[in-house]
Amino acid sequence: MKENNETEAKFFFARNEQELFYQKKTIAGLQVIGGCTYLEHLPQKSISTTLIPRFREISKHERYIEIGPGVTLSELKEIGERHIPKILHDAITQVANPFVRNIATIGGNICAKEQKLGLFAPLLALDAQVELKSQSETKFVSFQNFNEVPEDRILTTIRIPLDDWDVCLYFRLGPKNRITARSAGFAFLATSEKSTISALRIAFAGPFAFRCVSLENRLLGRKLPLDYNEIEGFIKEATETFDAIAGKKNYAAILKKQFQNLVRYSFEQLT
């Protein structure tokens, strides 16, 4: 009796972008994968991009750095804080363990569908962009508008601004080295001039992701230090943003409390 191969997972490789587009177009249901560290089982049909040289490149410019989606987290960490934003470096060190970081890619980390993983919150706070390419055009999309790679496009680059920040805070929530319903990331960035807030970012990513943009804008020009009543008011506004984005989504109730506590702690660091 012949073995039925219909249910066996099929794995493909692409050596360049043209091959990747061709395979995606001709093989129905094909999924692009990275290091597979987050997947419990391979998709029925998957294709790896590890053989595409451009996807493994890191290019530093004056105001930003561009990182290919196939760059591993260990490779990013080895660049060091002098060449990538400190908050991103801090987040990478909290992702799993060195063995997993040797395999996991930045593209795989930011493209997880059911749960936003460790690097999403800092990249959202940094106002990073993804380069999405189709066979006819290439465009950059900000992390605020990015949820997943459209079917007709491929992720080719992550562009990260290299701005200076006085306060850089990243917290990974949930159990260590495991992704559960309680896992999330929180990022806070701030800079000031002459005791006045000149830039500020608050980002959260887990079962859903968001930035407190209206609160960020309202805080620009605010004098430091913030008093207790101001901080409580800002926490209330941030919580309202959390509730509005969460809506009827399922999430662990503790995440909301942790978010509130981290917003409070972050504002208390502003002096």
Strand portion: 15-25%
Give the low-confidence spans: 1-5
Biggest beta sheet summary: 5 strands, antiparallel
Based on CA atoms alone, the radius of gyration comes out at: 20 Å
- The coarse overall form would be globular
What's the mean pLDDT score? 90
**Secondary structure tally, helices:** 9
Helical coverage, percent range: 25-40%
The N- and C-terminal alpha carbons lie at a distance of 75 Å
Count the beta strands: 12
* Backbone structural class: alpha+beta
**Strand arrangement across the biggest beta sheet:** 4-5-8-6-7
Q: Could you state the order of secondary-structure elements as H and E?
A: EHEEEEHHHHHEEEEEEEHHH
Describe the structure.
This protein has about 270 residues and is α+β, with helices and mostly antiparallel strands. Helices cover about 30% and strands about 25% of the residues. The chain has nine helices and twelve strands. A five-stranded antiparallel β-sheet has the order 4-5-8-6-7. Mean pLDDT is about 90; it is low at about 1-5.
Brief descriptors of the model:
271 residues, 4-stranded antiparallel sheet, 5-stranded antiparallel sheet, disordered N terminus, alpha+beta, 9 helices
Produce a short descriptive summary.
With 271 residues, the chain is of the alpha+beta class.
Spell out the blueprint of helices and strands.
Elements: E1 10-13, H1 17-26, E2 31-33, E3 45-48, E4 58-60, E5 64-67, H2 73-79, H3 86-93, H4 98-103, H5 106-110, H6 120-125, E6 129-133, E7 138-142, E8 154-161, E9 167-173, E10 184-193, E11 196-205, E12 209-211, H7 213-219, H8 228-246, H9 254-268
Parallel strand pairs: 1-3, 2-3
Antiparallel strand pairs: 4-5, 5-8, 6-7, 6-8, 9-10, 10-11, 11-12
